[in-house]
Amino acid sequence: ASPRQGPGPAAERPDPSRLRPHVVLAQENTQIRDLQQENRELWVSLEEHQDALELIMSKYRKQMLQLLEGRKREEAEPVLKVHQANSGEIESQIDRICEMGEVMRKAVQVDDEQFFKVQEKLAQLELENKELRELLLISKESFEVGREDLPD
């Protein structure tokens, strides 16, 4: 019979020190899987944006070429300068998107490595737990045998 706790944050959340290690590891594994799924979704979104930008750029270039062919060289010079300026800006944006993609790729790799470390630690703790239970069983058995040998 434990005393009742009043309402408050401590009553809503269990004390982390009282949770079993496998419960904590299971919660961390779930969080890691959620982060990995979110990373995959972000990566797909980034690739879609890159594809859209490439499509827009190709259409823009095609229209600019058509415009340049239809005008005289003197009239096309200012348009060409604007086109070059816009192309440079769009290329810098594409470069930034590629950099973001590389950062996301590295984040996924780090998440994967962390997940494998947690899995390895969980397996190690399970093995250690099994060995400790076996030692405890042996200890109990030897204690019971020692009690049986004592005279009444």
Describe the structure in brief.
The protein contains three helices and no strands. With 152 residues, the protein is mainly α. Helix 2 packs antiparallel against helix 3 (73-149).
Characteristics:
152 residues, mainly alpha, 3 helices, disordered N terminus
Outline the structure in words:
With 152 residues, the protein is an all-alpha fold. It is built from three helices and no strands. The protein has helices spanning 9-12, 21-70, 73-149. It is rod-shaped, with a radius of gyration of 32 Å. The two termini are 37 Å apart.
Q: The biggest beta sheet, please? A: none
Termini Cα gap: 37 Å
Uncertain segments are 1-10
- Give the integer mean of the pLDDT values: 81
Question: Structural class, from secondary structure content?
Answer: mainly alpha
Gross morphology is rod-shaped
Number of strands: 0
Helical run tally? 3
Beta-strand content: under 5%
Q: Percentage of helical residues?
A: over 70%
Radius of gyration: 32 Å
Please write the string of helix (H) and strand (E) elements.
HHH
Give the secondary structure arrangement, pairings included.
Elements lengths: L8 H4 L8 H50 L2 H77 L3
Helix pairs in contact: 2-3
